[in-house]
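Postdoc handover notes: sequence design on the structure in folder B. Input tokens:
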């Protein structure tokens, strides 16, 4: 479990296939901006990498490696190209202060940046999300974008997508990879955990239908 409060960034330095066909995943190695962040981290620990929960497979002096399955690669973005800057968050304990919102590290879909523009001292980020995720978003509700806990300021249902608008303060841009976003860029999305369960509860009786 995570909170969506990014505590480090890292750069992917190596991506190695774990097999010879599309059914195999990849071993990814990254280098941290601040290697001191690794203090206390052990192999087997869960770390959210740009919003996707990954298991530390090997530790290095300035980073770590993790294995990502073909299934995860097909449902996420930004985890398989050397040179990519990623957001990192260590999993929380029961004693951790919950400053963001409850984040599982299970990516629900990939969105596309529609616009990323200055708005006063901040920036407005508009993301077109898959239409099927639209029911999980609400004004002043929570969303995780590349693992960053953010507040939804507007929801617009379009014919083939749901557009959510978010305000990004300078601190968020300085400490995450969101400052690199441009129109058309792909981002990992996770819907609010509570909204996910409410949607399930409001289904037809006895769990009829799919969520």
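Designed sequence:
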């Amino acid at each position: 479990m995570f909170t969506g409060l990014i505590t480090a960034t890292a750069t992917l330095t190596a991506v190695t296939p774990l097999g010879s066909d599309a059914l195999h995943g990849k071993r990814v190695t990254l280098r941290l901006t601040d290697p001191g962040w690794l203090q206390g981290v052990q192999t087997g620990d869960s770390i959210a990498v740009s919003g996707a929960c990954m298991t530390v497979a090997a530790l290095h002096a300035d980073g770590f490696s993790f294995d990502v399955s073909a299934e995860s690669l097909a449902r996420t973005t930004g985890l398989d190209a050397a040179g990519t800057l990623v957001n990192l968050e260590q999993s929380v304990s029961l004693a951790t202060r919950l400053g963001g919102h409850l984040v599982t590290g299970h990516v629900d879909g990939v969105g596309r940046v529609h616009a990323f523009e200055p708005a006063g001292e901040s920036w407005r980020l508009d993301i077109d999300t898959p239409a099927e995720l639209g029911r999980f978003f609400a004004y002043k509700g929570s969303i995780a974008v590349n693992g960053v806990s953010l507040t939804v300021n507007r929801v617009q249902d379009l014919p083939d997508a749901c557009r959510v608008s978010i305000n990004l303060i300078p601190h968020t841009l300085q400490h995450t990879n969101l400052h690199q976003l441009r129109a058309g860029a792909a981002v990992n999305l996770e819907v609010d955990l509570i909204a996910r369960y409410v949607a399930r509860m409001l289904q037809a009786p006895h769990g009829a239908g799919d969520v």
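Context for whoever picks this up: DSSP finds three helices and twelve strands in the chain. Don't rerun without checking with the PI first.
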